[in-house]
User: Fold Bifunctional NAD(P)H-hydrate repair enzyme from Endobacter medicaginis.
Amino acid sequence: MTAPNRLALLTPAQTAAIDSAGDVLAWMENAGRMAARAILRHWTPRPVLVACGPGANGGDGYVVARHLERAGWPVRVAALSPPREGSPAAAMAARWRGPIALFLPEAAARAGLVVDAVFGAGLSRDIDDRVADLLAAAPALAAIDVPSGLDGATGLAKGRVRAADLTIALSWARPGHYLLPGRALCGTLEIVDIGIPPAALERLELDAWRNAPGLWTLPPLAPDTAAGGGDSHKYSRGAVGVIGAAEMTGAARLAAGAARRAGAGLVTIAAESGADLYRTGDPGLIVDASPLSAQVVDPRRLAWVCGPGLPPAQAGEALKLLLKAGRQVIADAGALAACAGRPKRLRGVRIVTPHVGEFAKVFGRSSTSPDWRGRPDEVRAAAKAIGAVVVLKGTDTVIAAPDGRIAINTDAPPVLATAGAGDVLSGITGALLARGIDDFDAACAAVWLHGHAAQLARHGRSGDGVIAEDIAPWLGTAWAEAHALARRKALG
Ligand SMILES: NC(=O)C1=CN([C@@H]2O[C@H](COP(=O)(O)OP(=O)(O)OC[C@H]3O[C@@H](n4cnc5c(N)ncnc54)[C@H](O)[C@@H]3O)[C@@H](O)[C@H]2O)[C@@H](O)CC1
Ligand SMILES: [K+]
Assistant:
């Protein structure tokens, strides 16, 4: 993976490292000017209160105030406390000669818009009532960097954080802009260029990206006709095995159908029992009723989906056989239940796809609350512990590699919270692994294709009534759009 810089997500510590070696005064001026422009695009002229903190976030605020006033808007500045003497922020504060206001909720309530330049993303402690009360009184809010109190590394709120209508990120977004609850607190996110040279990123050890085409590349979906036909051809496109349950057959079917639509040449359901159930319908699906121990040694069936619809005991047995045979395994659902509290049992699998409840059970977290999205470091630690890619599913899916890289998915529609959607994801992932795509890239691409296909299904025909079966038919279009987007962005 050669990740493009535009998709990089920077933690506050990484930004601080950039700033320590850069022209902060010039960047602060650019940040304030570009933020003012974004505000001018989003709102009609109105009285503005710029709330400034003591650090560089406040410094940006003084610049915003100057540029909005120059544009003819009535502007007042309220300072929480003065910037440190000699700092870039103090230089910007000295250039503000317009009206000032007390740092009180009443001042915010009287304005038509409040600019939140109180704190940036690297807050060390919770925001206090003085800040929270003023921001809560704002009729509308534009936040610089992040809404004050939002932790840019984790997306968690430190104290009472007022949601912004517009958040202006500076040159690069942060993990916290996309992780819940941060994503919801940011409102519309705009990333503005503040002139930091891209070379500044070379000195950082980047480890987080937004999941989008360009982070990974896909081979063509359609078979290469020059590569020959027949069985060798089917296998060269990637053969996937799906472990079938004897009773709950829907999940394996969904996974298998998605693997086929995602370009696998051949998909087999391994059904030692219940084979007849799988043989009805889906004429292109191969059903193999021979003992699983014989099937797993077929060297052509490289990638296996283990878990959808399976009782934990069956999934656990199948997992053992697959790992012993050295197969590439995607462990989901029943296979995760089989490893509850015993993550080491997953060692040897390539990708695991838990939702938050399954993550908690496998990796021993007690919290399954919906706003716990598995902070990036915990997902990283889980991936490291089992030596496999962990896909923590949710509306802000986090994909972590054992080496510490993470990608955060940003545009999955809420309709994905539907029964069977996870089975579809594991099938897509299986197809990509079988095509020989690297584990982390396969997981990231599968998550994006899955979300994008669901978006297409929603806009195409199904609306908010999207069900799992609607997703796979859109994978071909999603695949083509991934190619088009990667190409367009590469051209600039
Ligand atoms: N490379 C970039 O992205 C650039 C970022 N800039 C700005 O720089 C900001 C970061 O600047 P700073 O590191 O100065 O951070 P802040 O502006 O968030 O300020 C931190 C200051 O607030 C104090 N503080 C922290 N938590 C507090 C709390 N709960 N209650 C009261 N005081 C508290 C700290 O002691 C420190 O003095 C970014 O948010 C951005 O707006 C630009 O000015 C320049 C370039
Ligand atoms: K802010």
The mean pLDDT is 92. The first helix runs from residue 12 to 20. The CA atoms of residues 32 and 64 lie 4 Å apart.
